[in-house]
Design goal:
Helices cover about 30% and strands about 30% of the residues.
Length: about 200
């Protein structure tokens, strides 16, 4: 269910979705112009922590409840959460009228430094060059964050570049990348006009 607003409406830019497969069930909602209120439960503690960072630093009201076949692997849950968040992000944006569209940011976390560039383009494309120097963060494989962002990008129809410039601690690198994407989202969705920011007149795929 979507409640996207046009620039002439006072309604919040929000959306919600339930997606259920044989492997997972994901229920999520988002408010783009929120206060960073986040409620997340996926059964994967480190992933929950990263989703919390995305919501809080993105200024999003984000709720995610996921049940998945974690006894087999974490991959299905992480990917499907990315699909659902990307889907409701796109729905909440509506016709994208007046948004800034582009954003870029550098975010440090101690020794880690991550660069992100975002274009709410209507064209899904991911560049992910993040060197997380560890096989595991607790029980979490940091490589799964690439799968999350790829799923998000294709569902949201955005272009996203994430590059780590430095970092020795895998937790710091991954967390900095999530904070950086969150800040880019916060800037890119900001409404500062009335026109769709494209010479084509549309940002739909």
């Amino acid at each position: 269910m979507s409640h996207a607003m046009s620039t002439s409406s006072a309604a919040p830019r929000s959306a919600s979705k339930t997606r259920e497969t044989k492997e997972t069930k994901v229920v999520a909602s988002i408010v783009l112009d929120g206060s960073g209120t986040v409620t997340v439960s996926t059964g994967i503690p480190f992933f929950d922590h990263m989703l919390d960072q995305i919501g809080r630093h993105g200024g999003l009201d984000l709720s995610v409840e996921a049940e998945g076949d974690l006894h087999i692997d974490l991959h299905h849950t992480v990917e499907d959460v990315g699909i659902v968040i990307g889907t409701i992000f796109k729905q909440a944006l509506g016709d994208k009228a007046g948004i800034r569209r582009f954003a870029s940011v550098l975010v440090p976390l101690d020794e880690a430094l991550v660069e992100v560039a975002l274009d709410i383009s209507g064209r899904p494309f991911l560049v992910y060059e993040v060197d997380a120097p560890a096989e595991r963060i607790g029980t979490f494989d940091p490589q799964l964050m690439e799968e999350f962002w790829r799923a998000f990008v294709h569902a949201a129809d955005v272009t996203l570049h994430i590059r780590s410039r430095s970092g020795r601690n895998a937790h710091h690198v991954v967390e900095a990348s999530c904070k950086a994407v969150a800040r880019a989202i916060r800037d890119a969705v900001r409404v500062e006009g009335t026109a769709v920011p494209s010479t084509k007149g549309t940002l739909s795929s």
